[in-house]
Amino acid sequence: MLRIVRAFWHDQRGFALILVSVMLPAIIGFSLLAIDMSRFNNLHNDLQKGADAMALAAAAELDGKTDSIRRADRALANLVSNRYNFSTTGTGPQALLVAGVTRRYLRSLPATDNLPVASANVIADEVADAPRARFVEVRVTPVGFSAIFPVAFVTPGAGGDFNVGGVAVAGFTSGVCDFTPVFICNPYEDDPDGHTLEEAVADPALHRRLIELRKVGNGAAAGPGNFGFLEPPAGVGNGAQALAQTIATSRPIGCYSADGVDTKTGQNAGPVQDAFNVRFGIRASGNHFNSPDYGPAANVRKGATAGGGGNGNQCPQYNQLTFNETGNMGLPRDATTPYMGGRMGDGNWNLSGYWSTNFGSASHPSSWNTTKPTRYEVYRYEISAGLVGTASTGGEVGTPPNSCQPPVTSVDRRLIYGAILNCNALEQTNDLSGHSTGLPVEAFASFFLTEPVASPADDGSVMVELVDITGRGGQGTLDNFLRDEVQLYR
Length: 490
Description:
Pfam families: Tad (PF13400). This protein is of the alpha+beta class. Helices cover about 25% and strands about 20% of the residues. Strands 5-7-6-14-13-12 form a six-stranded mixed barrel. Strands 1-2-3-15 form a four-stranded antiparallel sheet.
């Protein structure tokens, strides 16, 4: 008998079954826990991806315009119809996500990611402050999740039902590359007639107004219609001549963000005059800009004849030119200048006199007889219609002299580009003639140079027409410069 008991005691057959029986509850529990974790992660990932996608879609509309929040809301509403999976919300796993998103528009973010969004960061008036909305916080309403794992087994009385949600913060940044380091004070800021930049680009009566720009810090304050300099790209140099080269070149390399630009302290007007005038085939003083990158425009008609030749491969200097001789006429100024303190014209310029002086009986588009074109449209038509080489009654042609560098045809050299700043508002807290940083940009713009810059003694005044702006309301001619980016911040 003892031997039978001893044999039974040492018999190990079936031992694995006993261990499995003991461990089976733990194995099943861990399996259920793994399934729950997988279901939870899938649901959370889907909700977070939905929040991310909707935040990015809404943020893409925050371009600083007055209707940006309205468009962002429309993007949120129309983006997708998400479906819940692995959730107890609705009638099943295919229940539609309806009214499951809330959003807040933000003017700024907390200093660090671990800080919550505060009321100071939130746009309070979504109508009046829509242009200041830079970020959007999208919160997916938490949905129910029911765990399979018996939570009450671990913690008595605990339930296995809880909610899962998602939160994302995205923002819109816009910038330009290959732009010149120039800022121009918004000529339509605080416009007494209520006109905006967008209207000025779209309305022919406003579009052809001639604007006189004066250099900030050189006899002019930082107000509407004045211009200054931005910090040039790294490695360009800090001197006046280095800055002028970045303005004069046909291949600028600067990139600037609409979120903020930095101004550069004022430079003397001499190099700036040269930087603009090389585009007209006028030789720079000191023989600077002596390379093809600084070549003239294909059309340099300016109402002047050379009283003395240039030397080498350069064109005459400004003081060697004679302007306004009988029979020669550059693009005329407006008849009157009733706006912006006498520095913006009424758009009424002498098209018939200019055309008859320079092109005689040559025809022009019949639409010009009913709607007067901008000077830039006339200038471009001269090129497209092959009229650049036509001599005026005084003998001037628009073709640059042979003594110039070869004309630049890859870009339009009579256009200058700059960041539009609302200088009246910014001047309250910034010195725009000094070195101010992080100044918000209203838009980036192109301007047409209608005539050479007369002299440094004339405050470096630059006569221009507004051609186009970036963003909504623009005509799309600056799209190649744009670098719009939408990104997630949280």
